[in-house]
Design goal:
The chain is of the alpha/beta class. It has helices at residues 10-18, 22-31, 36-41, 77-85, 127-152, 157-162, 167-176, 180-201, 233-245, 284-288, 315-318, 332-339, 359-370, 387-400; strands at 44-52, 55-58, 61-71, 112-113, 208-218, 221-228, 251-258, 263-264, 273-280, 299-303, 322-327, 346-351, 379-384, 405-407, 410-414, 419-427, 436-444. The protein is 34% helix and 25% strand. A hairpin with an 8-residue loop joins strand 16 and strand 17. It comes from Caenorhabditis nigoni.
């Protein structure tokens, strides 16, 4: 019997592509040019999308660009092994091998810039930088030499550190605590950083050939493609994202996260529909330009590490159904003032694993939030590390309010606007750095008359 394959129709192809993994779609479109226009026209659905410098991650697959150095002599091979294994250098290299600061790269049409006055403009080819690398190199060499000496004498580093030491030993004692393998890696790194100074001083061409390497990784599977280094790295990043995302009318992203601190190299008119967006505080305005505003965000997560930028009245922020803020203890006073103007129906405040806010800190934040009249159903939550902190917060609430109702892990009190505030905490297994969740919620009082 002779079987005949039936060509897939246009509508059938569109249906299949709509439910195909985005990374597989990218690969199919590159291998079969005839379906590229159709593939681009079908809405692209992505579970998670994130950008870093020279890296784009779609779901669990990453596309990383770097400058790979293929060495022509064995004597410098080890100096670049680590960087090459990591996908290459994430900055462009000049004729001697110096890394070029990314702040000197131009911003192209369609790009989204996060540059600030703190942008990386530090040159790597100065005399001061060379001296710093030489100092570090000597430290690694002396530490390795001392460890090798102790091993030949049958002694341990711990015994040596516990005994009397001269001035030279005192100087390297911190490095002696570093594992020998890491010391050797640090030594190789310093040597590679010093090589461009040697080439420049002697006007030599480095004994290696540079390529732009694209590393595609998913789990334990890695594919590597190398191209002639005839364009800048930022241009290659732009071209990569254009191949993946350009000319797509609809890109639906469940979770979008930005980890880039410099410039996103994006196609012109790049837009996404997203339910969840995560970024640093100072990046929210630029990020909002690529997120379609016709759909309300389910959650906007803001990380505040450095600058406390007051962007909470921006429509992109206040229209999010849930606003999650992650910061550190030093920002509490500023956060209290900001909470007075936040209009989101749901707010969550979290701190890092290294922070230990007190019950007074959480109570202070609660007061800032309650200082503004809230709609019924509004709520704010906090991550707590211990049960004790939760009980201390409830006790502060009882102390500050004359009339309260208490049950286990819960306190309720009336407000003057015919609402009541319910404050409770309970175990939580979803938090990365906390074990309990403290919840403050506005509820309708049984007696709707306002308290005079």
């Amino acid at each position: 019997m002779v079987s005949h394959s039936i060509p897939m129709g246009y509508e059938s192809l569109k249906t299949v592509l709509l439910h195909t993994d985005p990374n597989l779609r990218f690969e199919i479109a590159q291998r079969i040019p005839k379906i590229r226009l159709t593939e681009k026209a079908v809405p692209l659905r992505i579970g998670s999308l994130s950008f870093e410098k020279c890296t784009t991650t779609v779901n669990s697959q990453s596309y990383k660009l770097g400058v790979y150095r293929l060495c022509h002599t064995e004597d410098i091979l080890n100096e670049f092994t680590f960087r090459n294994k990591c996908g290459g250098v994430s900055r462009d290299l000049d004729q001697y091998g110096f890394e070029v600061p990314s702040a000197f790269d131009p911003i192209l049409n369609g790009d989204v810039s996060f540059r600030t006055r703190f942008a990386d403009v530090h040159r790597r080819d100065t005399e001061e930088t060379e001296q710093s690398f030489q100092f570090s190199l000597r430290g690694y060499e002396e530490a390795l030499e001392k460890i090798n000496q102790l091993e030949s004498e049958g002694k341990t580093v711990e015994d040596f550190l516990a005994g009397p030491m001269n001035e030279d030993d005192q100087r390297i004692r911190r490095k002696l605590r570093i594992p020998k393998k890491q010391l050797q890696s640090g030594l190789n790194g310093c040597r590679s950083l010093l090589l461009p100074f040697h080439y420049k001083r002697n006007n030599l061409a480095p004994p290696y050939t540079c390529y732009i390497q694209l590393t595609i990784a998913q789990g334990n599977v890695t594919k590597i493609q190398r191209y002639e280094y005839n364009q800048k790295l930022y241009e290659a990043a732009k071209k990569l994202n254009e191949i993946l995302f350009a000319n797509r009318p609809v890109i639906i992203v469940n979770k979008f996260e930005n980890r880039c601190s410099d410039v996103l190299r994006l196609p012109v008119a790049f837009k996404i529909f997203s339910k969840f967006v995560c970024g640093f505080n100072e990046q929210i305005f630029p990020i909002s330009s690529i997120v379609d505003s016709s759909r309300t965000l389910a959650e906007l997560r803001i990380n505040i590490n450095h600058a406390f930028v007051l962007n909470f009245q921006h429509s992109f922020v206040k229209n999010a159904k849930k606003l999650s803020i992650f910061t550190h203890e030093g920002m509490i006073d500023q956060l209290v003032r900001a909470l007075e103007t936040m209009e989101n129906q749901r707010i969550h405040i979290g701190f890092s694993q290294y922070d230990n806010p007190s019950a007074n800190n959480f109570f202070q934040l609660m007061q800032g939030w309650l200082s503004t009249e809230r709609n019924i159903g509004s709520m704010i939550t906090f991550g707590l590390k211990t049960d004790q902190i939760g009980e201390e917060v409830l006790e502060l609430v009882r102390t500050q309010n004359e009339i309260t109702e208490s049950t286990e892990r819960c306190v309720t009190f009336l407000q003057s606007d015919a609402t009541k505030v319910k404050i409770s905490y309970s175990p939580c297994d979803k938090g990365m750095f906390y074990k309990f969740l403290l919840t403050v919620k506005i509820k309708k009082a049984k007696n709707s008359r306002k308290v005079k």
